Each structure stands twice: as structure tokens, then as C-alpha cells.
Amino acid sequence: MPTRATEQPTSVNEVHLLGRLAGQPVRRELPSGDVMVSFRLVVPRPQSARSARSAGRGGGAGSSRSPTVDTIDCVTFRRDIQRRVERMPDGVRIEVRGALRRRFWRAGGGAVSRSEVEVVQVRRAPGSG
User: Fold this and answer.
1) Fewer CB under 10 Å: which end of the chain, C or N?
2) What pLDDT, in 10s, does the model give residues 67-120?
3) 81 within 8 A of 40, measured Cβ to Cβ
4) What count of Cα atoms within 13 Å lies in the side-chain half-sphere of residue 40?
5) Contact 68, 50 (CB under 8 A)
6) In the chain, which ranges are E strands?
């Protein structure tokens, strides 16, 4: 029988990203009274992922149809992280850690949802100045 130290987790929801801050963070107060700061992170795709995707469509590794970056929506409800990210300049390289979340709310008479990374740690990436 496996011990607790050797058991494998049954599920994991951890996100670790390294990319550039795109634009200025946006602060919003939600109907619940909670304050949320949202921002976007631009993360380059690894060359190997672009090559495999292009090859599957019949294009070469240098296919211009293949996206080279992903833009990831990030949010935080933690005040310390909100202050830190709001002071960061546009374009700075940052590292974020968190979990993928799907939020639901009502807008325009219907339900709306969005997947985003709920950030619990943020810092300037090493070597970003």
C-alpha cells in the first residue's frame, strides 16, 4: 500500500507562465464588492509546438499561418499582487503562478463565462531589468 509521501495526486490545476505584460492592468469592483485586477500576458509558443502544428496542416516550420504567441487573460483578487502588477510597466517580462479558473456571470440577459488564470504569485522575470 503506498504511503502518503509516494501517492500520486488525483488531479492538479497549476499554471506557471513566463511572458510579457500586455497593456495596463484593469481594476474592477465586482457586484459582490470584491476587487479584481485583470491583465494580459503574452507568452511565445515554443518552436517545437509551432512546427508540429504547421506540419499537421501541410505547412512548413516557417508557415506564416501558425500563431507565434498566446495571449493569456489573468486575474487576481489578492491586494498585494494587485499593487505589484499595477506598478509594472507595459512590456515587462513577468512570471506568474496560479490556477486555471472559469468564471460565470450574467450580462445582457444571458450567462457569460470566461477562462482565465487566477494568479497567486507574480514577479519580474529574472533578467527583465
Assistant:
1) N
2) 689 999 999 999 999 999 999 999 999 999 999 999 888 888 899 999 999 999
3) no
4) 9
5) yes
6) 15-29, 35-44, 69-76, 93-107, 110-124
Instruction: Please report, as a single letter, which amino acid is at residue 52.
Output: A
C-alpha cell at 12: 492538479
Q: How many residues in total does the chain contain?
A: 129
Tell me the pTM: 0.75
Question: Residue 59: exposed, middle, or buried by beta-carbon count in 10 A (0-12, 13-18, 19+)?
Answer: middle
Q: What is the predicted pLDDT for the residue at 97?
A: 98
**Rounded distance between C-alpha atoms, residue 30 and residue 63, angstroms:** 42
10 Å CB burial of residue 94 (0-12, 13-18, 19+) is buried
Burial of 98 (0-12, 13-18, 19+ CB in 10 A): buried
Q: How far apart are the first and last CA of the chain?
A: 50
